[in-house]
User: Fold these one by one.
Assistant:
Number 1:
Amino acid sequence: MDHVLDIADCYFFTPYIYPVSWPESWAVRQIISLWVVTNLGALLVYLVFGALNFYYVFDHVLMKHPQFIEHQVRKEIQLGTVSIFWMSFPTVVLFFWEVRGHSKLHDSISENSLGEKTGWVSSLISIIHSILFTDMCIYWIHRAMHHQNIYKHLHKQHHTFKIPTPFASHAFHPLDGFLQSLPYHIYPFIFPLHKVVYLSLFVFVNIWTISIHDGDYRLPGPLIFLINGAAHHVDHHLYFNYNYGQYFTLWDRLGGSYRHPSALLGNGPRDQIRKLTTEAAQTQ
């Protein structure tokens, strides 16, 4: 986040906001700036990509499903924006530690934070490793959220939305949302990672989270058994104890929680709506 902070300081905070007596390296100023940037950035990604998915990808026929609740989109956005606000506080603490140089993030492609020689191949490997690491961690965190002693206090809010729209992607209890984002933050404290890769992956997972709530159940055939897409995730919302994964189905398969998407078996939400519509027409 230090690159983002530098850009924000150069073009906005230093010339227009802070007094000259507040140096850019001052901890208090950095924390305030990080909080502003984190909130604005997260809201921008959530609302812009959520809106694009809702208007251009999401099938609005799904809003006719009997489990689609009244004023659902408004409730999703309200919960999502409130959650982002409260999640930003612990997130900024971690960003601040990164900015202060306590992580293993690095700038150079040719050398990592441990002084080891690297290159583009090493950077690619670190991307793959980071995705696999976070996917594994999020699976177990998400599954833990379904434990009966935790679920009712934290994760139940997200499952209010049985037929989610893209705006449900960030509609979590703030602690639930933060815990599920934690693997992305702790990774660079454990393993070396390029700063641009870290920031890109953090933005990417937010967009990915929106995409698995977007109601587009299509996946290329060979990827159905590998990628955890919207078709898999809607079954998680509907049937509760299945498909906890973030990117892949691997850990669901290993953990015995994989469910083949009902939308791909002719019994998904759209199929249920068509069945109800047909039955209603026949009774008239």
Number 2:
Amino acid sequence: MPIRLGSLAPDFTAHSTKGDIKFHEYLGDNWGILFSHPADFTPVCTTELGLVAALHDEFEARKVKVIGLSANGLSEHDQWIKDINEINNVKLDFPIIADGDRNVSTLYDMLDNQDPTNVDNDGIPYTVRSVFVIDPTKTVRLIMTYPASTGRNFDEILRVVDSLQLGDQHRITTPGNWKRGDDVIVHPDLSTAEAQRVFKDVRVIKPYLRLTSSPF
């Protein structure tokens, strides 16, 4: 079955740089981000992993547990992490799944079907740059897929987490280019009268477009 928004995130057990992981157990009651990398010791992946390590406090503040995946073995991961830390001046402390057998990559449909050069020595495809944001109920809330050649924008991923968490806590949605602290949109299923009771300020632009200050 394909994984879609609203799907239960498939559970799995895998080897990682932090020991064997049972995915749902690892996430616990937290939000989670599972993201894949084509291969170890590649330039874009090395910079991406360093960026995620540098954002440790941002993820922790949002109660998000991060877990990476690359289609290589643990010994390669361990050596690669040393490079990541040195090059980016960070201390990478989240687990990276060793998915040389592509079991998790196949389960989450991460394998590259586009780039004929993104394969291992046996011609088996590596992964693309997939991102899955998963909420505490283990429901998939965001799916993003980048080609192997394009590094991701983790500021955007954090922005989406902020929007999702805020929308779960309050009856609001967020407009295009919204960022933390900006005005938000009153949810369409809330009447204006009810919105005026719920929020301290409601600005009616159109009957279907009502703005209020960010609850952040």
Number 3:
Amino acid sequence: MAPMGIRLSPLGVAVFCLLGVGVIYHLYAGVFSSRFAAFRQRRKVDLRDLLAVSVEAAVLGGKEVKTVRDENGLNEKSKGKTREGASEPLTMGDLQSHRKMFNLLKNTFPEITVNSEEHDNMVDKATWSRDIPADIQDKIEGGREVPTESITVWIDPLDATQEYTESLVKYVTTMVCVAVDGKPVIGVIHQPFTGFTAWGFVGQGSNMRPRSSYSGSHPKVIVSRSHSGQVKGYVHSAFGNSTVVMEAGGAGYKVLSLLEMPSGSADSVDQADVYIHITFIKKWDICAGAALLNALGGQMTTLKGEDIDYSGTPVNKGGLVASVGVDHKAILEKLPNWDPDKH
């Protein structure tokens, strides 16, 4: 007798498969859920953590900057020339600091965008210590999370490199800035040769404060050493020939000159009322200062009073005016028309 064939019901097969899927889902739902939750968590960053790691990165880079200068191992080269014709030096201090700062940030938060003034392929395994400094814990609450895709980090591993090569180290800083949707939110400015670190978190707090008084009508204006001739004429046409114009290196230093420095660091920074720059400048130079001033109720705008977008291209073409404790709009209204693109 021939063996009888067995026919499987399509409906039965479907029911069986559905039951199997149900069993698998029941067994592994917890695993899938935790993995999806972890994925979602990785896609957001707590800004207090990012402030803490930014401070650590700036300090770590600063140690490299100081060591190279102290050991006189600059190995200076030229990256080219600025629009004003000045040479742009590159030293081992710039590179060593970049390697530490960039890799620390990327190793800790690999999904965020980090833009640095320098570029180098050397990998450093540094990761965040997970330490949150006491002053940050006291002033800043955790739990403010933002999507990683909204974050742009700008780092300047060595601000005032020209002055660094000339041993004018009081102008030298290392800086980290965190922008969210193009707006500067966290700013860190570290002085490697005094060890002081200034930080600000917009809407949350800062370890800095404005000075008790400023002059808006006859301000002391701080400008860049690299093109002081042009900017002096511009400032004098705005505020009069008797206006004091102070030359300094480093955008980070110039922002600190607008603020009250702690007693141990006060002698290392001159005091100014307004910071003006009339040519192109890179966002890694100014983003940290913008965030710090914003956290203290100050402003940093273009010469026309426009907000600066800290995403996209690294070049700010509109010049800048930075102030705190004065009427920023009144300062802007005194400035003559000027097109940085034509100078």
Number 4:
Amino acid sequence: MLTAVILLAFLLSAAAATEKDSAPLRLNDTKAAEAFIDSAEVVVVGFLEGEDSRGYKELVEASKRVESVPFAICTVKEAWPEYKIPSDTIALFRKADNHQENLVIAEAKKLEADGIINFVNVNEVRYVTEYNQMTAVGLFNSEVKAHLLLFANRGTKEFTELKKNLRALAPDFTGKFLFVLINGAVRGNSRSLGYFGLKTNDLPRVGIYDGDSDMKWLLPEGEITNERVREFCQSFLRGDLKEVKQAGAEPKTEL
């Protein structure tokens, strides 16, 4: 009997520990907030007055269901001005373009955990972001309009290695390019490939799309090395690509 009681107590303790570990981190000062925001490519911070605040329970619930993004809560209002937070707000911070996206609680007509998760998924732009209908919103709403595009077929030997290499290169172009991965094996991405004059069996290839000028170019065929991709990006930034023939022949459609 005693053994059963001890076992039950252990199980309850383990469950409590798991629940505690899944709760958002509490940020108690500005330095803690700075360290947390710098700790990952994408993070979410709930700037809320307290546990009774609207959105608090929903944020905690959302944090348990989103594994790819760390969550925290900051109730210390002295830290809020650093991030231009005037009132209760759920803020998403991303390093890829040094962007802060705010979900202001007072402006949200309906606030549920599912809505917060959607807010995160839509704005979760990373150093290398895989293109889909959800991430397209964050990509095209970014102030960074130049996209370095890797067209590759998931499941091929090149896919993982190229993604890894571009992930290492992307931080060097923070605020200048968003690095986007387009999986050519997805039928819905055929329009994106066609816009660059590509077909699935042409991949992998690398391209640049400039949203400001609506122009596009392909890195010439050959081995895709970080050195070649870096120079490709630099040639765009120098303005050299304006004299180079654009990729594809199809009229513009949404990527």
